[in-house]
Amino acid sequence: MKDKMSVKVIGIGGMGINFVNFMIASGVRKVEYITIDTDSKNSERSQAEKKIFLDTGVKKCSREQAERVALQCESQFRELFKGTDILFLVAGIGGATGSGIMPVILDVSKRLKIFTISIVARPFYLEGFENLKIANTGIKKIEKITDSLIVIPNEKLYNHIDKKEPLEMAYNKVNEIIKEGIESIVNILTEVGFMNIDLLDIKVVLYNSKDTIIRVGEGKGDNAVDEIIEQLKENNLFEGKLENAKKVLINFTAGHDVSLANIGQITEKISDIVKDKNVNLIWGVIMNQDYDKTQKIKTVVISSV
């Protein structure tokens, strides 16, 4: 059943298209990519197999106009998403396109009983009160329909980048962490692991979740455990906090000689970070021959309250 899982990643608007292009360039497979935008030039630069341009008839549309044209395409979306097991939606949420289109897609997906994970970026404060207002309204609307919501406050980028670093590099750091989270879930569903996690486990952690976060850590050798835990503590680019988690999913990717002691120590230290000692913690290991030579252990943590 695993190899028949259907996972789609939909990039909506400028941020969504940037992310899909990043995923494709990173070589993440076993995923179908779709982009949707109301800007024809933006849509043209998408590298997705399927790109949808929604023509609102104006150069710069409002949220209401984007929503209206998306509603007219409901039957097209329904046909496009049929048979999908998990749908990831990625968008910036302070403008018209993401705020207008994402709720329509989520509504169609809900009727098709598709499990949806929505990843949205909240605008910088300097983008203005109006954009923040649109974002907050959009997030509240999305939260009611999606199965899982992951919020990235752009403001947090200031704490995790060199102030002289180009903006594109800063966004690539966010893209990399989101990519790792999605790729981890895809691998869980499509690869046979030493300790298996399945779709049911993913739903246990992510269904009806709030303050969902993704953390990634990687290490090797004698200091692998400490390196991984340090990275998991630092990679805080999301709105939620690992400390407040009620449900935690840990996916390890490692070579065939990975020790149970290392896996156990990492799991225990993650558990120690979480305040709730009754946390629902699910973990699994995927053996990957590419890691045999490097002897690295990659740890992806997805948690929610």
UniProtKB/TrEMBL annotation:
Q: Where is the Tubulin/FtsZ GTPase domain?
A: 6-193
Output the Gene Ontology terms for molecular function.
GTP binding; GTPase activity
Q: Which GO terms describe its biological process?
A: cell division
Species the sequence originates in = Leptotrichia mesophila
The record, for InterPro entries, names:
Cell_div_FtsZ, FtsZ/CetZ, FtsZ_C, Tub_FtsZ_C, Tubulin/FtsZ_2-layer-sand-dom, Tubulin/FtsZ_GTPase_sf, Tubulin_FtsZ_GTPase
Q: Does the keyword Cell cycle apply?
A: yes
Keyword field contains Cell division: yes
Which keywords describe this protein according to UniProt? Cell cycle, Cell division, GTP-binding, Membrane, Nucleotide-binding, Transmembrane, Transmembrane helix
Q: Name one GO cellular component term.
A: cell division site
Q: Which PANTHER family match?
A: CELL DIVISION PROTEIN FTSZ-RELATED, MITOCHONDRIAL DIVISION PROTEIN FSZA
What region holds the Tubulin/FtsZ 2-layer sandwich domain? 195-304
* Recorded superkingdom: Bacteria
Which residue ranges traverse the bilayer? 7-28, 86-106
Q: Which SUPFAM superfamilies match?
A: Tubulin C-terminal domain-like (SSF55307), Tubulin nucleotide-binding domain-like (SSF52490)
Q: According to its UniProt record, which protein family does this protein belong to? A: Belongs to the FtsZ family.
Q: What is this protein called?
A: Cell division protein FtsZ
